């Protein structure tokens, strides 16, 4: 009786612990790959990251000395990377798109991005997409992250 109970308990514990451990290892591996891609991008431009953040599908980093922003996004369809020289931009603002609903004036957020305004009007503004409802089903810390990076970019630009 005791041996049967121990076997059943051990089996149940393994059924719970092993998948959770595997999911955690997979998440770390994905984050490490994003970080390596971001660091590689910064090294290509002879920069070093002073700040960076990782999410489930993108990495963003900055070299405040060189005033350079790096963005790497890994989607199911493609990998996108950006290097932006911040000396060419005068301002940074948060842009959000909302879906209109009948019950409220403000609907669900469908897109979040940072908009970098250039010094020269002949240069097009740069957009850094943090969230898009077509790619991700729900927000997962992107609002706090975009506020943090907006403040960081504004202070670096000025």
Characterize the structure shown.
The protein has 158 residues and is of the alpha+beta class. Helices cover 37% and strands 32% of the residues. It has two helices and seven strands. It has helices spanning 2-44, 142-157, and strands at 51-54, 58-63, 68-74, 79-85, 89-98, 109-118, 126-132. The strands form two sheets. It has a four-stranded antiparallel beta sheet, covered by helices on one side. It is extended, with a radius of gyration of 21 Å. The chain starts with a helix and ends with a helix. The mean pLDDT is 88.
Order of the strands making up the biggest sheet? 1-2-3-4
- Summed up, the helix count is 2
Quaternary state of the chains: single chain
Structural class, by secondary structure, is: alpha+beta
Gross morphology: extended
> Mean pLDDT, as a whole number?
88
Largest sheet: 4 strands, antiparallel
| Share in β-strands | 25-35%
Distance between the termini: 73 Å
What Rg, in angstroms, do the CA atoms define? Answer: 21 Å
Unreliable stretches (pLDDT < 50, length at least 5) are none
DSSP strand count: 7
Q: Portion of residues in helices? A: 25-40%
Which H/E pattern describes the elements? HEEEEEEEH
Brief characterization of the structure:
37% of the residues lie in helices and 32% in strands. By secondary structure, it is an alpha+beta fold.
Give me the secondary-structure topology.
Blueprint: H1 2-44, E1 51-54, E2 58-63, E3 68-74, E4 79-85, E5 89-98, E6 109-118, E7 126-132, H2 142-157
Antiparallel strand pairs: 1-2, 2-3, 3-4, 5-6, 6-7
